[in-house]
Amino acid sequence: MVVLAKPPALDQISLLRSPQPGDASSFPGVPAVNLSSPGAALAVVDACERFGFFKVVNHGVPAGVVDRLEAEAVRFFASPQAAKDACGCGPASPLGYGNRRIGRNGDMGWLEYLLLALDGNASVSKASPVPSSSLRDAVNQYVASVRGLATSVLEAVAEGLGVAPRDALSGMVADAASDQVFRINHYPACPLLQRLPDSCGVTGFGEHTDPQLVSVLRSNGTPGLQLALHGDDGRWVPVPPDRDAFFVIVGDSLQVLTNGRLKSVRHRVVANSLKPRVSMIYFAGPAPAQRIAPLPQLLGHGKQSLYRDFTWGDYKKAAYRSRLGDNRLDPFRI
Ligand code: GA4
């Protein structure tokens, strides 16, 4: 048992866990894909089938756009807590500035964040409170580029799966009514960790799958992200940070649209004792009325859908009734 002289704030919200990654020796590493190279579509599908995860390199998103947003985010999160609490954009419910509370059902993490809704033009929506117009502008500029990356990824998935038209998936995200969200997470350094045995970790963001089609994540150079391997008893492996790449995460909706051929991936973040981690994630979701069902071309040869029919609106509503770590697709399986 660990006895701490002075109970830290962390104790109040029972964050301590032991999220130990497993033996990563047989993990070949995160696949890296250059979307403009020949064979990219097959490489994307292969990575999505094996891991539900890969990183995009040589992506063409200007470094200045990324750096500008990271600097704005760091500046906001570094402001006094009282200023953040009074920024007029919190507490998150679920949009806005959130501190440690995730979602509506009691999930907690060692982080603070901004969760923003985007409108049909992929600009921060009027319904989303933001702390400053400079942060809003930086998000809009960033999302304009990263949404293009998500589009290319979804086109590559369609091509690699032999699905026509090429925009069968990406069109769901390009739809003017599509439901896209953007999140900036700040995981402060957690010095308490240095006083705990190695076997103890602090949960930054608990394990979960993303409900959307795909998520595109970029982080600073601080480690912490881990993913559960498909098969292999869901062994957890660390994802080495790469501030120059974008990580693509397969979400539950893409799993259903491909009738389980691509699988969403459980992932989580553990806190770091020394360095703060900042990540920015674009979640590509479809319009609320969009039917989420296997694409007809993937249901040939008498194959049945593994899922009952539902819309993105139904799924999102169910997600917000769930706990972070729940398997949200289970109730939708036939
Ligand atoms: C996980 C993916 C995205 O971060 C998110 C999260 C959302 C939230 O933080 O408000 C949820 C979570 C996420 C899934 C289950 C519900 C909803 C918290 C939670 C407990 C913005 C999303 O779309 O779903």
Task: Write a concise synopsis of the structure shown.
24% of the residues lie in helices and 23% in strands.
Features:
7 helices; iron; about 325 residues; metal ion binding; Iron_ascorbate_oxido_reductase; globular; binds gibberellin A4; metal-binding
In words, what does this structure look like?
It is an enzyme of class 1 (oxidoreductase). Its EC number is 1.14.11.13. It comes from Zea mays (Maize). Belongs to the iron/ascorbate-dependent oxidoreductase family. GA2OX subfamily. One of its GO terms (molecular function) is gibberellin 2-beta-dioxygenase activity. The strands form three sheets. The chain has an eight-stranded mixed β-sheet. It has a five-stranded antiparallel β-sheet with strand order 1-7-12-9-10, with no helix packed on it. Helices cover 24% and strands 23% of the residues. It has helices at 40-50, 63-77, 81-85, 133-161, 170-174, 252-257, 312-319, and strands spanning 16-17, 32-33, 53-56, 96-102, 107-118, 180-187, 201-208, 214-219, 225-228, 236-238, 246-250, 267-270, 277-284, 291-292, 310-311. The protein is built from seven helices and 15 strands. α2 (63-77) packs across α4. The protein is of the alpha+beta class. A hairpin with a 4-residue loop joins β4 and β5. The protein is globular. The protein starts with 15 loop residues before the first strand and ends in a 15-residue tail after the last helix. The chain has a single domain, classed as B-lactam Antibiotic, Isopenicillin N Synthase, Chain (Jelly Rolls, Sandwich). Gibberellin A4 is lined by residues 94, 102-103, 105, 107, 115, 181, 183, 208, 210-211, 283, 319-320, 322, 324. Gibberellin A4 binds next to β5 and β6.
